[in-house]
């Protein structure tokens, strides 16, 4: 069976101080760059919860979501990426865009990082999780569910945790399912959870 090859792609920052800046990247099998429509929806729903907060892009990939957060006013962004080349590319674009002082690129395994994570002092944060396809299936799904539980337990009250998944994701694997706000955008899903809330984060599914 032939191996799937990486494909060259280009993504664009939608709004804010870096509006229109482009990131060229190689998309490897299993990577899920967040579509522009979904990014627009993500930041529209987060709204005023972006400026003044730290933003964590936990499975950063291209880094476009974390960089978009900085563009839209996040005080800083921490982008986790295990792949050495991709992490280096994120750092390159942070420097090229003049925001390296607001971007921390962490070459780390997201699951190990979550176990050690200590949230910053100073109020709520935003956490965005867009894991690779295999992490949302089979045995790895249990590890992902634990990661979500750990992050929610540690995050300050009023923090927002968002998961990007695709149609078919077993939402019942998430802790305290009624507290999640699930939005559908074609095949893509965004799932929002506000720490400390026992009701959906932003109203209900569209």
From TrEMBL:
- Which Gene Ontology MF annotations are present? methyltransferase activity
Say if the entry is tagged with keyword Zinc.
no
Mind telling me which InterPro entries this protein's record contains?
Answer: RNA_MeTrfase_RsmD, SAM-dependent_MTases_sf
Q: Which GO terms describe its biological process?
A: rRNA methylation
Q: Which SUPFAM superfamilies match?
A: S-adenosyl-L-methionine-dependent methyltransferases
Which Pfam family is an annotated match for this chain, by its short name? Cons_hypoth95
| Keywords from the UniProt entry | Methyltransferase, Transferase
Q: What is this protein called?
A: 16S rRNA (Guanine(966)-N(2))-methyltransferase
**Organism of this sequence:** Fimbriiglobus ruber
